[in-house]
Write a structure and sequence with these properties.
Elements (H helix, E strand, L loop, with lengths): L1 H6 L2 E10 L2 H6 L8 H12 L6 H15 L3 E11 L9 E7 L1
Antiparallel strand pairs: 1-2, 2-3
Helix pairs in contact: 3-4
């Protein structure tokens, strides 16, 4: 909807990362796992890119996370749009991209 481009929307991004994190469990060192500050920076950067749909946003986030963190073997990215303007009583809609 055109008004969304002006007023924006409220979003939530949920991420699930799967891989072999054995080394991190043994060393307790950040460099042996996923740095969640970097995850947040990737999400923030991709959420700032104007898109008409949430699907491309979720895909961009997933692809960037996959390339930034080689230990991640499988991931889910869910982008949730809260209170979508669809003319009905709907709390949220979401899309999940899985790589």
């Amino acid at each position: 909807m055109p008004e969304e481009a002006v007023i924006g929307g409220e979003y939530v991004v949920n991420i699930s990362l799967h891989g072999d994190f054995t080394k991190a469990t043994e060393t307790d060192k950040l460099e042996d796992t996923v740095d969640y500050v970097q995850v947040y920076q990737i999400v923030k950067k991709e959420m700032a890119v104007r898109s008409n749909l949430i699907e491309p946003v979720a895909k961009r986030i997933a692809e960037n996370l996959k390339s930034a963190f080689p230990p991640v073997e499988h991931l889910f990215v869910e982008v949730v749009k809260k209170n979508p303007p669809i003319g009905g009583e709907v709390d949220m809609v979401s899309v999940v991209v899985e790589l």
